[in-house]
Description:
Blueprint: H1 12-19, H2 23-31, E1 33-35, E2 38-40, H3 59-73, H4 78-92, H5 103-117, H6 122-132, H7 134-145, E3 148-150, E4 156-159, E5 168-169, E6 180-181, H8 188-198, H9 200-207, H10 211-229
Antiparallel strand pairs: 1-2, 3-4, 5-6
Helix pairs in contact: 1-2, 1-10, 3-7, 4-5, 5-6, 8-9, 8-10, 9-10
Amino acid sequence: MQDLIGVGLYTPAEAGKLLGIPARKITRWLKGHVVDGKQYAALWSVQVSLGDDQIYLGFRDLMETRVVHAFIRNGVPPVRIRSAIELAREVIAKDHPLSTNRFKTAGREIFLQVIEMDEDGVERERLLNLFKRQYEFNGILDPILREVDFGDDEYPSRWWPIGRRANIVVDPERSFGTPIDAESSVPTRVLAVAGANMGARPAARAYEVRETAVRRAMEFEETLGQRLAA
């Protein structure tokens, strides 16, 4: 079986809960799908294989999915994103190029090249206008990469899903990438359940964490639950 230490492990449902993206959409992007009789391959090869027919994401897959979703949400068609990934993989020489630190600087030119190669009339002009303006491109990318720490290899190494001040981190080197209290490494799910059953203060004493850590974990897990219900 594949060694998952430092890789992270998420089902599409778990990834969707963390990212606020329907699991079926993540599965479609990473497994491939058929539309009107045309077969579309997966956007990239996932990090994790457990030897069955199921899709699992590693931490890099999770971060790449965040970026893809941000561009689609801002009106970039999936076919353009697919072309951008293929070109970026060659330019940046990384398997998950969109979520790398280098893509922050090279990404605009990569998208421009993809758009200029195609002929799509009005849509083409709209996207050209979007990506010719540096501040608009950065306006898509910066908010989602601001909460990410990068390693020396330019790949994401940690993600602060609700901002650094909340002290909740997703780190593939710790607890297989499940959200944890950054100071104690206790999973937020554990703290949230304990807080709900015992109260925040007793739970904090039981797990030797700050009371604020329990309260933040409870709020965070409640938000994830609401995403899942939606």
